[in-house]
Specification:
The complex is a heterodimer of chains A (252) and B (233).
Chain A lengths: L1 H16 L9 H28 L3 H16 L2 H16 L5 H27 L2 H9 L4 H16 L1 H14 L11 H12 L3 H38 L19
Helix pairs in contact in A: 1-2, 1-9, 1-10, 2-3, 2-5, 2-8, 2-9, 3-5, 4-5, 5-7, 5-8, 6-7, 8-10, 9-10
Chain B lengths: L6 H5 L1 H37 L3 H16 L2 H15 L2 H9 L2 H27 L3 H9 L4 H31 L11 H12 L2 H30 L6
Helix pairs in contact in B: 2-3, 2-6, 2-8, 2-9, 3-6, 4-6, 6-8, 7-8, 8-10, 9-10
The chains are: A mainly alpha (252), B mainly alpha (233).
Amino acid sequence: MGSVIDIVRDNWLLLLIGQYPNGPLGGIACTLILSVLGIVLAFPLSVLLALARISPWRWLSWPATALIYVARGVPLLMLILWVYFLVPLLIGHNVSGFVTMLVTLVLYEGAYLAEVVRAGIEALPKGQMEASRALGHSYLGAMRRVILPQALFNMLPSMLSQFVSTIKETTLGYVINVPELTFAANQINNRLLTQPFQVFFILAVIYFVVCWTLTWAATQLERRIEAKRAGTAAGRAAGRAPVATPTLAAEP
Amino acid sequence: MKGFDLFALFANPEFVTMLWSGVKLTLVVALASWLLAMTLAVVLLAVRLTPSALARRAVQAYVSYHRNVPTLVQLMLWYFGIASLLPGALQGWLAEHNAEAVFAVIGLGLCQAAYFSEDLRSGLRAVPAGQAEAARALGHGYLGALRHVLMPQAVRNAMPALVNHTVSLFKNSSLAMAIGVAELTHAVKEIENQSFRTFETYLIATLLYLGFSLLIMAGGTLLERRSRIAGAR
């Protein structure tokens, strides 16, 4: 146990920010920046993908569905290899591991989040769309002003758990040498050589603390939103409307 | 860059052998860890259903750990960390018996067991309470009611989630590459290094992964439809 404390005391700065300012920003800071940017950039993509997928126009829904199935059926690692290979070809110069990982995360999370958005939209009562169409909204106008604001609010907890998944997925950046937390831990392990269990134990504990806190926050948020919905639905005879809980896998 | 030529890869028997052994190892790792995960998930569920608060807490902690720590980190902890604590004789034996694959199966299996057991538990919770009461009233014991009445319905409820998590288990088998298992992604990197046909190699691997994933999804849907009871909600 003492050795665990020693390792943390000697390396906390590396775990926190990597080799910054003498090198690229790394460690937990890199992990968090990567996941926040990933989910923030994936969000607009996912809304567009979800709208395309449920749209009544086949030329739009078909490619979106195909894209989502490809992202769901192929390992993230394989997608990283593709981006690593294709992005430099497309833009003409090399990009850093950080950018490669960010692009991959946006594509992958965009597809997963699109399914969350779709589930959120489909969980709303059909009457919402019918009523707004009857009131004179166009299909897209009704989506923008009536359906999406409700659906996105109900989906907040799912999005937070998707954020946790994103944090866990950034670990794969290790494979292409992104200086995030897992990479930093491997650096420490390579330098110490004799205490692999302690090093990876510390790594697991850090991830656990970060992700568990966020998961807990998601549960609290879900409870609040459910209570709010139950309150507004109490007058209805049918009771509470089902809350959007997509069965998509959280991974890896 | 060379022109696109898919057959250049298949023309080289060495690459075909590497690809084939990669596919085989991917399937073996995925299948073995699935079996481990499912067995453990049932055990975890059974422990959780006992009235003991301590047992419930322990299972909750297990699930929480495995869901909040990235799978890759769990694999590293097993392969680099826990392996180093084992007695020397066992380490030697493992080294001779493909230690990477063994730890990949253990790591992936234990991790996915947490997800599977939660799927089964929510499936069980969705079975109406009257079912349990009716089964007991008809003379079933606690375990008998669970086995003959509740679980068959719970598994049906849990099917979509179980299929999704089976797909992610299959996809996660690619993480084993990071600890040196020569599975499909690993083989692909090797072939790419030797042939310089990046596009073709990645394309083949992507189609293989996608094919197997879609097969699992389609199989799950078929099983779901087959096992549906007429008139059940």
